[in-house]
Amino acid sequence: MSIQPYPTSSWGHGRIAIDRSNSDESSLPEFEAFDSVTPRAPTTQTISVLGVDMHAADNKRLHNTSKYKNSNLIVRRNNEFFITISFNKPFNNQQDNVQIELLIGSSPDVNKGTYIILSIGIEKITGGWKSRVVEARGNNVTVGITPDASCIIGRFRTFVVIVSDFGKQRTQRNPDTDFYVLFNPWDPADQVYMPRETDRQEYVMNDVGVIYNGEFNNITTRSWNFGQFEEGVLDACLLALDAGKVPILYRGNAIEIVRQGSALMNSQDDDGVLVGNWSGDYSIGTAPTAWTGSPEILLKYARESCVPVCFAQCWVFAGVLNTFMRCLGIPARVITNYCSAHDNTGNLKTDIVLDEDGKVDRSRTRDSVWNYHCWNEVYMKRLDLPEKFSGWQVVDCTPQEISDGLYRCGPTSVNAIKEGELSYPFDAKFVFAELNSDVIYRQSDKYGNSKIISVDTAYVGKLIVTKRVNSNAYEDITSTYKYPEGSDKDKQTMQNAERRGVPTRDYLPVAEAGVDIELQADTIKIGDNFKLKMNIKNQTSQTCTVSATLTGSAMYYTGVTSMTFKLENKTAMVKPWNTTNLMVDVQAVDYMPYLVDQANLLFVVNGRIEETGVSLSTMRVVTLRPPELTIKVSGTPRVGKDLLVIISFRNPHNFILKKVQLRLDAPGLITTRMKSYEQILPGGSVQYTETITPQTPGKKVLIGCLDCAALRQVTNQLEINVV
Amino acid sequence: MSIQPYPTSSWGHGRIAIDRSNSDESSLPEFEAFDSVTPRAPTTQTISVLGVDMHAADNKRLHNTSKYKNSNLIVRRNNEFFITISFNKPFNNQQDNVQIELLIGSSPDVNKGTYIILSIGIEKITGGWKSRVVEARGNNVTVGITPDASCIIGRFRTFVVIVSDFGKQRTQRNPDTDFYVLFNPWDPADQVYMPRETDRQEYVMNDVGVIYNGEFNNITTRSWNFGQFEEGVLDACLLALDAGKVPILYRGNAIEIVRQGSALMNSQDDDGVLVGNWSGDYSIGTAPTAWTGSPEILLKYARESCVPVCFAQCWVFAGVLNTFMRCLGIPARVITNYCSAHDNTGNLKTDIVLDEDGKVDRSRTRDSVWNYHCWNEVYMKRLDLPEKFSGWQVVDCTPQEISDGLYRCGPTSVNAIKEGELSYPFDAKFVFAELNSDVIYRQSDKYGNSKIISVDTAYVGKLIVTKRVNSNAYEDITSTYKYPEGSDKDKQTMQNAERRGVPTRDYLPVAEAGVDIELQADTIKIGDNFKLKMNIKNQTSQTCTVSATLTGSAMYYTGVTSMTFKLENKTAMVKPWNTTNLMVDVQAVDYMPYLVDQANLLFVVNGRIEETGVSLSTMRVVTLRPPELTIKVSGTPRVGKDLLVIISFRNPHNFILKKVQLRLDAPGLITTRMKSYEQILPGGSVQYTETITPQTPGKKVLIGCLDCAALRQVTNQLEINVV
Fold first, then answer.
1. Which pLDDT score is estimated for B2?
2. Banded pLDDT at B13 (limits 50, 70, 90)
3. Does B396 participate in catalysis according to the annotation?
4. Is position A396 annotated as part of the catalytic site?
5. DSSP assignment letter at B241
6. Which residues pair with A208 in a beta bridge?
7. Which cofactors does it use (chains A, B) (predicted)?
8. Which of A231, A428, A697, B410 is a plausible cystine mate for A412, CB 3.0–4.6 Å?
């Protein structure tokens, strides 16, 4: 029963006008005559509006939004804010009919929550929004407005309307009276309510964090400037939603914001914020390893009219998505999973194919095990699911697989993953596979026939970590995702998963060798020669002769190998109940020419027990440690006083570092600074000095990052306390 | 551990090569040398292939695919088919290493099921496909091949490969050996297994059906040519998947085919098959009411390089989606829901807004109740859901609302809808609202304040029907979707739905009037004057005075009204426990100028009881019956003998019918014939004669349809038995 045409051929033209941009506006007439009345201007006796004061500073204090560097009012849902309207004469409740109109998008509609009409003096609830007169003094009336607990988030426009018998007289459009509504983790009625203040301070209010990478034996840390309060970041986040054409109507639902946000942070399919690149060649953009935080990226995206920013890998995606969530008021954190399977076919099997000689057959190995993978968790009530699946939800914006047409993943309940309850939206099976895949070593002959030679059920999803609340140490949250490997509960989870369409583990149990191979290495610096220890443990009562092939390759953190630099055969005779340690020498001259990105080496060993013909396989990633970047400050940091920051670096290698980028980031102190060096000679040093004048007291973090093609991710951070 | 680059910026360029077209091919070398061997041609002693016979006719009989008008082999999953390879000499199991390669798409990959390698003589299972030598006679070997029960569906290419020590010698590309693999409802291992043969004959094999429309008091019938076996239709269905870029990898999963199919039958977002149009102006295309079946539409789409076909409404969408499903082997049927809510905000409330005078306020009424709405059901195991949610699934390709970014809906389990279990994918809440919304009558004043005046909880989802198996009568399947209104189970369902995020019914119970208004009408022909009976039933012990406002509008079947042609006030005094019948005269001269599409009139009555001030509302749709189209044949229809079909029509109206289209469709006899008439004068007649020569015996249906702007959907059908 509507007179609008039905959608005929494209988005947004339709019976259901689909409004997909918070930047677009409709213009409302300043005078709107009522039907069947000859329009004429209101008489002079009528009350009129002289001004509207949004009380931005005062309201922001009440709404935990003072930290946003934005001159407009920012409020949170279901929390009252106050505005004062100045009239030309005292407001008379009996005579004057005054309405406040709050609008969002270009086709505001009372039925859709995009057009809120509140009457002053009449306590009335419209679409869940409440208003009341708090004070009337002289010609001024102060009104308290409480947004609905599930209202649309974004930038609203404010109008005041005088209603007479002839029509409506509206105030002029004034951007100063625009205000933003955000999710409210402080309010029990909000979908993203988070009960503890310490949690909210970390997961919503903390604008700097730590992301873990490296490998699970050697976890490394990098600080990240989330910068959700930096000038322009909130507008950039809303712009990303507009660029992704997310209907305004859906923007009150955190599930929708999270799901679409996971699609919009990557450039695949929808010109989202970041272009993923794992090729090793980042020359036409910024290397993923070179960034120090999100604001630089989001502001570049907004400044350049939504052209995707080059380049990102998983921790950059996760860092920026974290900013997006916290900025809009959704509690969020960055997670690292060691090691993370990327299983092409969703069959919970990650195949490593070896050739007849036991070498890794790079052309036949399609799946990969990421050394680590970063994703995010967001905290919310899942109103669409049974109650036990509320709480932390996985969301992953790194473009890995298509979910229902777009590159996106989640939100999916962490509790559901743990129980193997994979039927519920969204993408639970993919996340489950990242955490629970088995590594299958297959040997293949030249005709393409392959057989399984060994299976490792514990390699993937060994350790899942996130930054601890109010600390930079990591918290092991593996137990929130998984029951202990092999426990009854774990078996129950695997059975549930199979009942929900995860393929059963259909390979036969591999013959028990009774012999184990293990690879060990210490912490090693880039450029060092080192020894890799191969321990062969014979747990049988027979002597065994093991002939082993070790393949050493340079590897991206995604498990994709670039070059094989070492191939060595070793044979050992191991006595019953004994362990033999073989040493493999690894020389810098061998690996240095092939190092890529984060300087990972992958060693795969394939052994054969001569006496029984049984095969053994294992693999080990060694992450080499880069040279140090030092950050120092001069004297005690004080508010209003100049502080000197000195970053220095010495090239310890015997090769020239070319086109070096050095970044200094200091959330709450300065915006990201970048300095380029054409080259740094072998043994040469650079020193970069910046003067900062702190404006507010408290703990701050200085983040430094040096990056060039030959040496990635040389990072450091320094915490300072401004007094 | 792959050497391909990771996806960098767009679909399909990526580490995970995403192959989205069955039409694209890779070319394979005719000779492929093994690594580390100097390539040279095979020696003359080697066996070579002279030809491959796909035994299309014989295999098709075994696979229930003989009806497809397609010269290539068409098989179903997990059912063996036989091909014969002719060699230049007898095949020697010990000496000769011969492989059959089956490929689909442009980047065939053994790990993805897009590249099947079967060895002759070695009984081996590759990716679930099986092969065995059935017979070796002379130089010929007949091989039995059984596709995996969950393999990819589509068009495969066949190669035979001779493997020598030097490399692989491959047969040339030959389109004659291409074959199609379809879903297999006959096989218990297939996801779409349907146990009963009578059901399979109806829901997979029946190529003509009946779609119900009209209104629930006056159900009308139109035959529809599904034509899934017609020449070119299978290719058109696969082309639609290609046009929609559905990854080949996903095409073995019926859930994915159904979900993407529901997006691809409409042109919104993805240039799918049909353009929806409910405007009343279809002059630049074919009116939705003028079509007689799917083949004409699908073949036009394919012929015109995937330019969307103009125009469709719900039954056309449902008819074409039904063809798509049955053609690919997924059991499917067309459903009609009387009346169907289209609730803009997903809140289970459909608002009818009346103005101060009790007239329908067309500008404020945003939701609508469709007189009827057609969707489809498909039958499948939902491996992703708990077992009880397998069986019939709702899928709807009429573009109504966006689901996860695209216009699509489903599949969603009918059982889950019935239980109010709305957490499971896909779009259960939307379907639930179509069936269970309440109609809320609101009265609104000019300031925009509105109050609820009455609620009808039973108007929507009253009756759900589909064609009965092996009959043209309808089957009432309401009980598969809903428990009886008001039963304990029904209440439980509503509670479950609320727990899954459906908003609670938050309006207060409306004061019980004790007085009912009902509207009644007989079956009425277009152009007739008629009487509408308004029955006012007083079930109280007080006399009541009812003043009622009746609004009569011409209406599209979507509930969208075009013009108000009648507005009448009536007053009646009704004695206690008595019924008063008021008659309202409706004159043809009043409604004829405004009739649209399927000639529906909507009457809404709003009454007020003077004594108590209580309001009453009700509405009633009257579908006017069009003049008759007659279809006759000459003599007894016999195979091979000319049969004369005569369609005639007389214009009974006093106005000229302009630009008249007349269609004759006869599935299995002829392709759709269309005849145009510039005009038919008042009282004038047309007669159209077509000569048909039946090729096969059995029951056939002749479908006729006459359509023009002033008179829509004049249809008839005649069943004949060819002997």
1. 24
2. very low
3. yes
4. yes
5. H
6. A225
7. Ca(2+)
8. A428
